[in-house]
Amino acid sequence: MNTRAMLVVSAALALGVGAVSAVEITPVPPQATRRIATVQVRVAPERPDWTYAVGEPARFLVSVTADNQPLEGAVVTYSVGPERMPAEKRTLAVPRAGAIIDGGTMREPGFLRCVVETEVAGRAYRSVATAAFSPEKLTPWQTEPEDFDAFWEKGRAALAKIPLEARLTLLPEACTDKVDVYHVSFRNLPNPWGGKTQVYGILCEPKAPGKYPAILRLPGAGVRPYTGDRDTAARHHAADRHPRHPRQPAPRCL
Questions:
Q1: Which residues, at least 6 apart from 129, have a Cβ–Cβ distance to it below 8 Å?
Q2: What percentage of the chain has pLDDT greater than the value 90?
Q3: Is the full-model pTM beyond 0.70?
Q4: Is the backbone of residue 43 left (phi > 0), alpha (psi -120 to 50) or beta?
Q5: Dihedral of the CA atoms 221, 226, 230, 236 (nearest 10)?
Q6: In the predicted model, what is the mean pLDDT of the chain?
Q7: I want to staple 228 with a disulfide (CB 3.0 to 4.6 A). Which of 3, 51, 164, 204 is the partner?
């Protein structure tokens, strides 16, 4: 392997060629045959706290880099408008020192979103920044339905008629020298067809005697095994990884 080839291979390993942002670009250093670089497009509000008063102008700072070096001849497409609303797209050449986008202002409290996109070596890149205008003055726009309280009171009354049937089962294979791990379950409201339903979870409890706060961690979407938060429990906290029944205190977490 000659020196030029070695330089290319070393750069590829260091930068992670398999990463989405790694592409072949120019200029190529004289001691190499190819250049593989990690490209990034960056955009941020001019103010570090990204907060403005209503009526104040907001500007966004834009740069396009390859391996943290400014990319020559970069051109971006950008749009600025209220968050989640359609906005006109425009084109901007970004010099090595970076570019500034005039985002205008907002006449009422809200969020101004700047979306910047570019393409380098046939690959698309995108970055987003948001400026807040008087966010402390935002008020809820949704009104509470007239039957809101009645709806939940009806649900609570129905739930009160369901026997809890709570079960706590030790999982010896999941326990550690500091934490006991349990499988927990209890009854829930029946499904639309009248069948029984259960709520399941994993309880991790410190073995050391004492009182500990209960931490509820809700699982994300998807089907996968759960072993509980043993690390947190080992730090003298009780980690309760399941949605608790409104009538059920945190099991054995006092």
A1: 43, 44, 45, 50, 60, 113, 114, 116
A2: 60
A3: no
A4: beta
A5: 60
A6: 83
A7: 204
- pLDDT (mean) for 42-54: 96
Beta bridge partners of 130: 113
DSSP E strands in the chain: the ranges are 22-24, 36-45, 51-52, 58-66, 69-70, 74-82, 89-94, 99-104, 110-120, 123-133, 167-170, 179-188, 197-206, 214-216, 238-241
What does CATH list as the number for 3-137? 2.60.40.1930
Please tell me the distance from the alpha carbon of residue 174 to that of residue 182, in angstroms, as a whole number. 8
Sorted by where each begins, the domain ranges of the chain are 3-137, 163-241
| Whether 203 contacts 222, CB under 8 Å | no
pLDDT at 21: 58
**Quick one: pLDDT band at residue 235, thresholds 50, 70, 90?**
confident
In this structure, what token pair is assigned to residue 34? 């190819």
Query: Residue 4: what pLDDT?
Result: 34
AA identity, residue 51: T
Average pLDDT on 216-240 reads: 78
